[in-house]
């Protein structure tokens, strides 16, 4: 006889970042926009991401963790790296950004997640 009690006690995991994050207006707008894309267009033009987590999941987490400006740039650059000759594999959102990543130097976000 099998015991299935662990199934009932398991927490439902979202496909997006479920950690704690500040719910500022910019972050809510950005994550809402990504979620709208996931619910509508993703099934039509998505399903071909070469990374794990997918590009939309990455963008959602980046915006939730680092705000609309930094997370938006990180998500945009991640989508650009996802082309046929781009990077692939596991690419996690950094928990914290170093001092070189400033709001006035958005081009530096391109280097986050690139293979050395």
UniProtKB/TrEMBL annotation:
This is Putative membrane protein insertion efficiency factor. One of its GO terms (cellular component) is plasma membrane. The lineage of its organism: Bacteria, Pseudomonadati, Pseudomonadota, Alphaproteobacteria, Hyphomicrobiales. It holds the Pfam family YidD. The gene is yidD. The keyword DNA damage does not apply. It is a peripheral membrane protein. Keywords: Cell membrane, Membrane. The keyword Membrane applies. Belongs to the UPF0161 family. Could be involved in insertion of integral membrane proteins into the membrane. It is found in: Cell membrane.
């Amino acid at each position: 006889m099998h015991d299935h009690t662990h199934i009932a006690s398991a927490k439902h995991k979202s496909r997006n970042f479920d950690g704690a994050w500040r719910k500022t207006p910019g972050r809510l707008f950005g994550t809402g926009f990504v979620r709208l894309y996931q619910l509508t267009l993703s099934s039509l033009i998505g399903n071909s991401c070469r990374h794990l987590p997918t590009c939309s999941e990455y963008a959602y987490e980046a915006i939730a963790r680092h705000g609309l400006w930094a997370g938006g740039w990180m998500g945009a650059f991640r989508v650009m790296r996802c082309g046929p000759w781009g990077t692939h594999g596991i690419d996690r959102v950094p928990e914290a950004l170093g001092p070189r990543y400033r709001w006035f130097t958005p081009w530096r976000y391109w280097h986050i997640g690139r293979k050395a």
